[in-house]
Amino acid sequence: MSKDFRLLVKNAKQVVLVCTNGEKFLTGKEMQNIAVIENASLVIGKDGLLKAVGPVDRIDSQFQGASFETVIDASGMCVTPGLIDAHTHPVWAGDRVHEFAMKLAGATYMEVHQAGGGIHFTVEHTRQASEAELLASLKQRLLRMLRTGTTLVECKSGYGLELDTEVKMLSVIERARKDLLIGISSTYCGAHSVPKGKTAAEATDDIIKVQLLKLKEKMSKGELHVDNIDVFCEKGVFDLECTRAILQAGKDMGLQINFHGDELHPMNSAELGAELEALAISHLEEVTDNGIAAMARAKSSAILLPTTAYILRLKQPRARDMLEAGVIVALGSDFNPNAYCCSMPMVMHLACVNMKMSMKEALAAATINAAYSLGKSHTHGSLEVNKQGDLVILNSSRWEHLIYQFGGHQELIKFVIVKGKVVYENDRTLDY
Fold it and tell me: In angstroms, how far is the first alpha carbon of the chain from the final one?
């Protein structure tokens, strides 16, 4: 065994493993039994993978005489897996702070949309922005997420709605993936809205016959790496028939299905997703009982977005019904100009208070289950040997403080670590 390692975290009050037996996801009562070790240490190798985790004495004995590039004494602190944000729209130009006032005055999402705001406002500004401008703002947003404990994030395109801008957005995501240490799962979301001047059928035809073909070409050349395909399946946007055609075309070229469904109206999106063996369906505020049952059977994960329901004053997703039915429940921030939140600790808090999840359920949903929704739970989402060494170290004696202290994560998170490298060290933590 090698004697040289990248990182030793020693003497932690708690290390939250989440899983111990290679589980790819947790459901139902399993989510109430996440694994925690008291008084523990862990070691990450130079390959960025976790080599060992266990009681302090055992790790001390096992690695006696070993050398480490970095040693962190976590006495009195807690360690959790890096958080995973399973749904974001982080590439855009032109904020929509003015629309927040409209919503507070009672305007609905679709009323803002029909008044020329919403997605189309952002589309116009994003089309005009240069790749360099989009990359600079994306990097700032990803660094914000990193500082809140997110070490893997799903990033969508979708503010282009035509080939050139969609490719520009995906290229920006590709650049960020190479330049930053935060993990990225890239999603093509050309069907985020119907472009002005086109019908949904015409937009669907363009996506399948033009945009996806160009993406396939660029992916085959190694110019882009795209993981998922997304469609906004909604009344007045893309109906079930259009959604099915786009998702199937993406699946046929190897993309994972991960789409918006049943948000504003019951569209039977969950049933469609289960039929297509979707890896994930997001939103689901209006999901039916049949849709919940179908997702549980198909092992299609539900990415719930409590920030969106909170900001748009929608009814909350039926998290408890889904959990009791055996659905794989994950969480995401839905970071976008309409719901500006990049903090997964705040998302978990809202999930507990507004969706009636327990803190253990919320943590599992923001780690192992979020990893599953992105097809990455074999490498991410728990602190198990041979998984990627992504973790968060908290200046607290119990991990629950990460959720309990609403908005307090800036003073609570001491270190964020990706592949065993310290990517954020906070010298402004405060006791509580």
Answer: 42
